[in-house]
Amino acid sequence: MAPKRPKGAGAFPKAVDTPAPSRPDPDALYAALDLGTNSCRMLIAQPLGSGFHVVDSFSKSVQLGSGLERTGRLSRSSMARTVQAMRICQQKLKRNGVKRMRLVATEACRRAKNSRDFVSQVKRETGLSLEIIKPEEEARLAVISCAPLVSTKTEQLLVVDIGGGSTELVWIDLSSVPRRDRPAAIMRLHAGFHTTDSPFPAAKVVDWISVPLGVATLRDQFNDVHDDAARFALMSWFFEENLADFAPYKDEQAREGFQIVGTSGTVTTVAASHLGLKRYDRTKVDGLRMTSDQIDKVIRGYLDLGPHGRRKDPRIGEDRQALIMSGSAILQALLRLWPTDRLSVADRGLREGLLYAQMSADGVLEDGPF
User: What is the mean pLDDT of the chain?
Assistant: First the structure.
């Protein structure tokens, strides 16, 4: 049901936990790797209570999807950069003795004509087996990673994951779930969006969509527009056009009882700017709630700065000033349709969802919400 338009994937870097000081039991470790259009990210963690503790991590901008929009193929240089990053991941996995892992690739590999050749190259040169996942699983994993941030007062929930090449939106109705069970009901969606045989109160997925526009692909659509403000406006309206098939698109949503959870580098960067942070601090950003008006103020500030000012902003930087505007255009389109006083910022995503799903399947989460 995804609209058929552009192509690509990735996002802004997210801060991750620092390695644990003591060496954990390798048999207790799990790994999750997320290879997107822009970035390669990995977490190695061990179960801890109903969650997990990160013992090692990796994050690098590899720009795997560079040129994909134009050629339909992954370039030799982007594949070489990515393989080099995955060699580092392989070394970390070997050093920690990790046996349980899921290593997944998303939109860029879903779209590229030569993705099978690339997966074979990764296997041949690093020994790692990449799995190209479908959009529904990507959306599902993003949803469950954000479940702890869902308010017990929320009845209608929109989870948004802005990637580099695609954006996933999932609309969930929690009105029939008892308040105290709502975050747990969200996490149980790891088994599928439309399960009917669960004995637990069920979160109803009203609709979900994977829009083939993310921060990189949306930017690439309008590279020929030189005026900063005009390009931003075009990106925002173009993204909204691609939501026409999303069932809640035409529904007016009351702010009361409605929550958006946003997971992406765009959302965390906007949050850091709102807080006036000079250095990124995950503990202050993850779980922060912002209103539509606060977000709009930050985005207007980005426009006022212009490309040169954004490059000098320490929260944005030289390489990502264009990406923050395409991501902000997506965010503005969503808030134009569904204004909210509760947009929760999630510095978490696919990797965390992969870890939760693996640990849940193995039954190692104490009092787990799954």
Answer: 87
Amino acid code (one letter) for 30:
Y
Q: 154: which 2 tokens?
A: 């929320």
The letter for the amino acid at 41 is: R
Q: How far apart are CA 95 and CA 236, in angstroms?
A: 45
pLDDT at 7: 40
- Copy the structure tokens of residue 181: 């069970």
**134: Cα separation from own chain's centroid:** 14
User: For residues 352 and 266, what is the distance between their CA atoms, to the nearest angstrom?
Assistant: 18
pTM, entire model: 0.83
Tell me: the pLDDT tens digits for 307-336? 999 998 888 877 788 899 999 999 999 999
Query: Per residue in 235-245, pLDDT tens?
Result: 999 999 999 88
* Interatomic CA distance for residues 213 and 206, integer angstroms: 22
- Write out the chain in H/E/C secondary structure: CCCCCCCCCCCCCCCCCCCCCCCCCHHHCEEEEEECCCEEEEEEEEEECCEEEEEEEEEEECCCCCCHHHHCCCCHHHHHHHHHHHHHHHHHHHHHCCCEEEEEECHHHHHCCCHHHHHHHHHHHHCCCCEECCHHHHHHHHHHHHHHHCCCCCCEEEEEEECCCCEEEEEEECCCCCHHHHHHHHHHHHHCCCCCCCCCCCCEEEEEEEECCCHHHHHHHCCCCCCHHHHHHHHHHHHHHCCCCCHHHHCCCCCCCEEEEEECHHHHHHHHHHHCCCCCCHHHHCCCEECHHHHHHHHHHHHHHHHHHHHHCCCCCHHHHHHHHHHHHHHHHHHHHCCCCCEEEECCCHHHHHHHHHHHHHCCCCCCCC
